[in-house]
Amino acid sequence: MGIRFILMVNKQGQTRLAQYYEYLTLEERRALEGEIVRKCLARNEQQCSFVEHRNYKIVYRRYASLFFLVGVDNEENELAILEFIHLLVETMDRHFGNVCELDIMFHLEKAHFMLEEMVMNGCIVETSKANILAPIQLMDKAS
Amino acid sequence: MSGGSGSGGGGGVSGGGPSLMDSLFQRTLDDLIKGIRLHTPGAAQSTFISKSLDEIRREIKSTDLQTKSTALQKLTYLHSLHGIDMSWAAFHAVELTSSPSFAHKKTGYLAASLSFRPSTEVLLLLTNQLRKDLSSTNQHEVSLALECLAVICTPDFARDLTPDIFTLLASSKSFIRKKSIACLLMIFTQYPDAVRVCFKRLVENLESTDNAQTLAATVGVFCELASKEPRSYLPLAPEFYRILVDSRNNWVLIKVLKIFSKLAKLEPRLAKKVVEPICDHMKRSEAKSLVFECVRTIVSSFHDYEFAVKLAVSKIKELLLETDLNLKYLGLQGLLLVAPNHLWAVLENKEVIIKSLSDVDRNIRLEALKLVMSMVSDDNVIEICRVLIGYALKSDPEFCNEILTSMLSTCSRNVYEMVTDFDWYVSLLGEMARIPHCQNGEEIEYQLIDIGMRVKDVRPELVRIGRDLLIDPALLGNPSIHTILSAASWVSGEYIRFSKNPFEIMEALLQPRTNLLSPSIKAIYIHSAYKVLSFCLHSFLFPHTSTISVSNLVDEHEPGFTYSESEGDTNADLATSSKNTITRESIINLLALVLSSLTPLAETHDVEIQERVRNVLGLARLAQEEISSCDTLQKESIFAVKHSVIIRLINDALSEDLGPVSLSAQERVLIPEGLLLEEDLHKLDNICEQGLPISESFSLVKPVLTENDSVSIHPNEESSEAESSSLLSEHRKRHGLFYLPSDTTQNTSTTFPPANDPNNQIDTDVEDLVRLTEESLVLKKKSTLTRPRPVVVKLDEGDRAPIARAKAESNDDLISGAVRDVLLGNEDCNKGGKGDSEGGNASKRKSKKLKEKKQLSQSDENVETSKQKRKHKGRQRGDVAVQNSVIPDFLL
Question: Which residues of B touch A29 (CB under 8 A)?
Fold first, then answer.
């Protein structure tokens, strides 16, 4: 499975979104998130966006105060994942308009919904922004 | 459950009934989030959260679905971001999924997919709801169910819902088809039999190129399946090829490249066909991700195609010169993949690599380090190590140790294959020990001793290095290198005969700062001092005979023992040189030093130290008597003095050479004729059974003798084992650390390199321990001017790498078995034997060919019918090579 988990973490290291594509217990998740956040947040702009951790490869990117961290298995194409992160941010941007940390916090369900449109079973299934957002827009209209 | 949902059926918003108060004053999710933000992280926040949890527990029981839904939303939030357990609310989540309101349903499904685990009890209650939603006319409800199923799927779900998924695979809406395809992967892994039902439709989706969405999902599924067991998907190569050539979607192309990278390893002829299109993509594409994937595919799976590799390397070079660190990092990784087959590519980029060693980013430095190590050969190892030591000194402690670790592992690989000049290597080890941040003490310790035992020629240099380390009082202040010092002291004691100045070493071993050492290491120091003392005394008392074999003389006193003077010729020069400095006065001083520094330790509480100290003191006092008696007696009568004989015996025992010994060597020692072991020793069986485990504590490795590894059916088998093991444990007590692990037992020390050098003259018929050491002596050559590589003793039965390969997951086997059956079109005859993945009956193979032809006609229009006829003939005789000729027509 290509993508194993997606995390959004703010500068202070607080998790803002966590989506796992394999089952981990709460304790395992907490430990994993702690380790990864410590490792990635310590890095600066002059360092590359790939970190190896346990048997994962973490591809991350920072947008303003938010870090997007994607854990993939070792065969995955790092640059494609970076593009995926960017696509995710652009999609959220289009929906929320200048997306920020608070948008994701207060609309966690929507953020998950977008991710579900984009990724299933760790495979990227949709890369068109319009297609990703269509169901959410329908839902917004309905309510 | 259904009653609850029914009563709320009027619509989500209008609640009412007994929980009116609850719903009116219920905190919303927003309120909860704001509340959490108001409280500072820590105690205040967690009390707020637990208070909210109490509310949620109350609210979630409400019959009003809106209230319930909000409660669940809040709980999901707390679970997902604050790690609050919500397994207790599983039933409520199931309840909400059956709500007629889409919003509630969505909340329910999200909670389920985020929190359910295979062991969740109410899981089965969800089956019916999933089935209902999967067959809903609202595509968004179907999508919710599919997404949830993709996460929480269990074998039960997969079995029960396979028919529904099968229907959805043919849905006219690509939105649904795409998701059901992506969901299939989970279904297959949980329930391999689903492959028989759904696989054909999956393949059909691969063939219909009109829809980019479904294609991406399909290729994604195949990429995952093929990464586990690629062989089954070889027949689909023509399809993948078509996608590779036609598709313009980079996401899809990357996945297809990954599939080909796997397939090409199984079918070499495939490479010829796909290498061209891959190169086209590499030249043409603007997308770095695709280019890099092409590069990676070429260098890892198509490295025989020179032009492709050259192109890939040129692309790597572009990446390396980029200012973007990510690209640079990937460039280095690419080089690392090229290195095993095309070292020239690494050498070409040497400058960038060396420069990257001092990059700010540790990850880049690590990749560069790996590349530098890949360039090491026996010609340049000295030069490269010198450069690296320079970098190690400049680097931060962490990276410094990375450098040291990789140097140590590279140089020691395959029994020091790289090293020709061992004098240089041991001095390098000494240099490493002095690097302030060195954390590789244990490895250096191990190698110092290992080299000492394996390479005789290096011992004088080893002793010199050991002396330098011991004599430096500053090193004792660094606890992380104490283990190295213990090796240095052992080496100095064991090979003291090569020392230029044994007195100096004695002083170093007994210096006051040794108090900083841990007791176990201190004990090694004292034991080394014992060896040094005995050597000095012996050299002094027998200045002329020390180089002559002493076995005759000893025999007179102790007829039962024999001594081998192993180092007879070689150490003559050295021994005389050190002997010259030994005067009566210096011996007296030495004894005074020993007595004064060790007497206080005789009362220490550590038994190890105490025992060894008492040994040394005993010897020293004995020697004192001896020397004072020397005054009164004539020189010739020395041999009559009992003490000197004891000293000689001790020295001989200590100076016996210790080679590396295979753990299984003892088993192969032939029992001398006429030795009846069982007569006296068969009673030891009981003792031995208890004794053997105890001996383990002295050895880092497991005992050699296991019940079932003896082939001998000799009646005295048991007792011979008993004796040898008791001797062995005795011997290990002294040198347990230095045993080689045996191949018959599980290795505990994995650092030991395999010794399977075919040129090794000793290895084939090692009959016993004694012969082993003798032969290694015979092989020893005097060093010549050109300094040939010294003999490195290896043992044939050293630890081989474990042969047992990790078994593939049984589920993967089942999947691939089923896939093959489906692709070969005989699913009916194989329904029973689902685990039969490699079983090849003739009919199966025939149908495999038929299927190939079918695909062929769809994909490759160049094939003519005459060719197909030829194929028919080929089918009858070609059954044997079927594994390799799965896609022959495509390859022609």
Answer: 83
